[in-house]
């Protein structure tokens, strides 16, 4: 299977991060350059990895396919895990429960449309309980 240069760069970067043992370790060991050309989607995933967010829950579609592609590559490298759900409010409640019960951090992803508003409505649950959940809304 041939890959585009962008995909090849992402795969290489993800493998380097995984080989170093994680994002912070890769930076400390200079396994990856401190400056790199990349898409905003990949930069967001790297930023979340730096904040120890390794679980991504949501629905991929219009407005989130690019970040879904980055997550696919980074998941294949063993750096994170994605969980598909059928409703955006369900994604928020799952991320909230994960943080509440285990302390693990999670990000919620939505596509463009009313799902972003559903996730926003669901965000009141972690907010009212003082729990951190990250949101990447397609809108």
TrEMBL record:
CDD domains: TPP_PYR_POX_like (cd07035). Residues 38-122 form the Thiamine pyrophosphate enzyme N-terminal TPP-binding domain. Gene3D superfamilies: 3.40.50.970. This is Thiamine pyrophosphate-binding protein. It comes from the Bacteria. It comes from candidate division CSSED10-310 bacterium.
